[in-house]
Known about the structure:
Layout: H1 3-16, H2 23-30, H3 40-48, H4 59-86, H5 109-128, H6 146-149, H7 158-168, E1 171-174, E2 180-183, H8 185-188, H9 207-221, H10 231-243, H11 248-251, H12 254-269, H13 284-298, H14 300-308, H15 317-322, H16 331-343, H17 347-359
Antiparallel strand pairs: 1-2
Amino acid sequence: MSSLLRSFVLEFKSALAEDTINLTALRELSFSGIPHEEGIRSLCWKILLNYLPLDQTLWESFLKKQREVYSQFLREMIIQPGIAKANLGLSRADVTLEDHPLNPNPDSRWNTYFKDNEILLQIDKDVRRLYPDMAFFQRPTEYPCQLILDPQNDYETLRRRVEQTTLKAQTVNRNRSGVTNVSSPGKALNLYPSNEYEVLPNGSEAHWEVVERILFIYAKLNPGIAYVQGMNEIVGPIYYTFATDPSSQWKEHAEADTFFCFTNLMSENRDNFIKSLDDSQCGITCKMESVYSMLKEKDLELFLKLEEQNIKPQYFTFRWLTLLLSQEFLLPDVIRIWDTLFSDKDRFHFLLLVCCAMLM
Length: 360
C-alpha cells in the first residue's frame, strides 16, 4: 500500500471510529472516492444509503433485527409458499371448487403464484446475464443461505420453480408460410446460453442466485412497481461491493444488507421505473430534459448542434439516468462513480451533471 493510499485509509478509519459518525464530514471525504481496503467502501455505502444509523452503539442490535426481518421475508415469501406447492403432489387440499389453477380471481392463491412466476422468469433471465464479462456472479458464494438450502425444508425453491416453468411449457412459433416449430422455451429464451450459466449442484448457490432472491423479495414487497428490467443492474454493484468485503463478519450477511440498501436507493429512484409517472414532474421525461437544459447552460454550441441534428435526450439519457450509469462503464468505474453519487446529498442532481459532462 502506498503512503498516499495509507493516509487516505487512515482518514476514513478516523471518521468511522467516532461513536456518532459525522455524516457531513464522511460525505465530504467520500466524494473523492472511497478505498475498498479493509472493507471501508462497504461500510461507507451502508451509512451513505441510510441503512446503518449514525450512532455506532446501535449497530449490533440494529443489524441483528434487520437480518432477522430479512430471514422472515424468506420464510414467508419463498419457503412457506414453496412447501405448500411441494405438498400439492401429496394432497390436493389447495385445489378446491373456489380456488384452483384456472381461477381468474385476482385474490386466488393460484393466480398469485402464476403471476409471481412471470416476474421470477424475467428476473431469472436478467440476473443470469449480469456482468457477463466477469466470472464473479457465476461463481459459488462462500456463504450460501442456510435457511434456503436446509435439506430438512422440502419445498419448491426458486431454482426449481424456474426449471419447472421453463421445462414444462413449449414455445410454438408459426412462420409466414404457416410452418409450425415447437421448441424448448429454455432454448428459445436463451436462458442457458453456455455451461457457465448452468446452476450449481445442490448445497451451493451462485452469486446471481442470491441477487435473484433479493429482487424477487423486493418485487413481492412492492407490488406497485414489482420488478422492472434494469433493477438487476442497480442491485449488482451493491451486492458485489458487500460480497467482496474482506471481513467475513460483513460478507456473511451481504444478501440481507444488500436488500435493505437497494430498497433505500430504490425509494429515491423508483419514480424512474414507474411508467405512469414518466411525464410528471418527478418522472424520467422531466429528468431527461433537465440534462439538455443543463447542457444549454454549460455548452450552448454543443446543445444547438444536437438540436440541429434532432438528437433527443430520450435516445441515450433514459438508460444513463434509470440505471445510474451502471451500463456505461466497467464495474470498477461504476463503483467509483457511485462513491461520489452516494456521498452527494442531492445525488440525482449530481447524476445530471455527470451526464452533461459525458456529453461534453
